[in-house]
Amino acid sequence: MSFKKLNIIQPILEAISKVGYQTPTAIQEQTIPHILQGRDLIGCAQTGTGKTASFAIPILQLLNQKSSSKKVIRSLILTPTRELAIQINENFKIYGEFLRLRHLAVFGGVPQKKQVAQLNRGVDILIATPGRLLDLLNQHCLDFSHVEIVVLDEADRMLDMGFVKDVKKILTKIPSKRQTLFFSATMPIEIKKLALQIVRNPIEITVTPISSTARTIKQSIYFVEKEEKLNLLFTILKDKSIKRSLVFARTKHGADKLVKKLASMGIYTAAIHGNKSQNARLKALNDFKNNRIRVLIATDIAAGGIDIAELPHVLNYELPNEPESYVHRIGRTGRAGVQGTAVSFCDEDQLKDLKKIEKLIGFTIPVMSS
Ligand code: AMP
């Protein structure tokens, strides 16, 4: 199956090809055609399955078809955390690069003045955490009367975090004639009940959760102080028996910094992330595939498109804050029965992230001493 077969328009196909995805993931294949037809949806899928693109791509396409000259919000995405809001916004930026749709993420914990100014300039797609959104609604900063498509992302986490009342209140402000997409990683009865109150005649889709890591991957963790990480990375990468290593950083800036620092230590690498041009990404990938560089530094989003048959080594310079991303990252090695190694660094601030990862994969990652 190709993205083209899903009837996706050319500007989005170009953006998908630029980010390097070759085929749709299971959830994308199953949801995109229905969403494009305007159906409501209940999707049971975790982060790491490609779920964000499964709603972002058809939303962009639908809104683009009926482009509006008015400065009105036409799609609202509700998500429980600031990190997810930022990630989803980043996804819209990537797939919508060649369209003229405006999108914005709003979340709490930062001053709202700038967000209000951005809202006033006009936004087609608003991605928000419920608390901040409700604040803005109460201050009459938002008009939802033109919203056509609503997404509830990670509904089970919203329930856990006590957001359900807020969500229900927000939904009362949105026209009932709308398309609603409801996503949750798990589907206990109370979540299912909530879903059925919100959607109409939905398609129901479940994709297999990725909770188990391949047995062929040898995993280990180093507890390391922040200041010592670079030296440890250097020591590990110096070992020439590692033919290729994919190193994960959390941010674009962090990835670029690593490239520079490693170069100053004599290890030449390249980074791929959302700010790099397509040519720069392709060059980096080709250099990596053709063994001109042994080390490639990537952020989660950019790494989505990397498909390299022989990748023996993945290194998490920083642990991801979404545990599913850990499974996704290390799943890039140890494919097709080949032994892979996944090494992770964990500093004091990331102990909580490590606990979440170990809970998800169901075992304690062996600790190495540096
Ligand atoms: P998500 O489940 O939306 O958090 O996506 C998890 C990861 O998969 C992200 O790094 C995406 O960039 C990546 N991704 C999404 N769709 C695809 C695809 N069709 N092919 C390869 N990677 C993808």
Description:
By secondary structure, the protein is an alpha/beta fold. The protein folds into two domains: 3-206, P-loop containing nucleotide triphosphate hydrolases (Rossmann fold); 217-368, Rossmann fold. The protein has 15 helices and 14 strands. Helix 2 runs parallel beside helix 3 (51-65) and helix 3 packs across helix 4. The longest helix has 15 residues, at 51-65. The model has no long low-confidence stretch (mean pLDDT 89). The site of adenosine monophosphate has 16 residues, from helix 3 and helix 13.
Count of helical stretches? 15
CATH homologous superfamily placement of the largest domain: P-loop containing nucleotide triphosphate hydrolases
Estimate the strand proportion: 15-25%
- Separation of termini? 45 Å
Bound molecules: adenosine monophosphate
Mean pLDDT: 89
Name the structural class. alpha/beta
CATH architecture of the largest domain: 3-Layer(aba) Sandwich
Broad shape:
globular
Characterize the main sheet. 7 strands, parallel
Q: Could you give the count of β-strands?
A: 14
Radius of gyration: 21 Å
CATH class of the largest domain: Alpha Beta
Number of domains: 2
Trace the largest sheet across and list its strands: 3-4-2-5-6-1-7
Helix and strand run: HHEHEHEHEHEHHEHEEHEHEHEHEHEHE
CATH topology annotation of the largest domain: Rossmann fold
Instruction: Please give the share of residues in helix.
Output: 40-55%
Low-confidence stretches: none
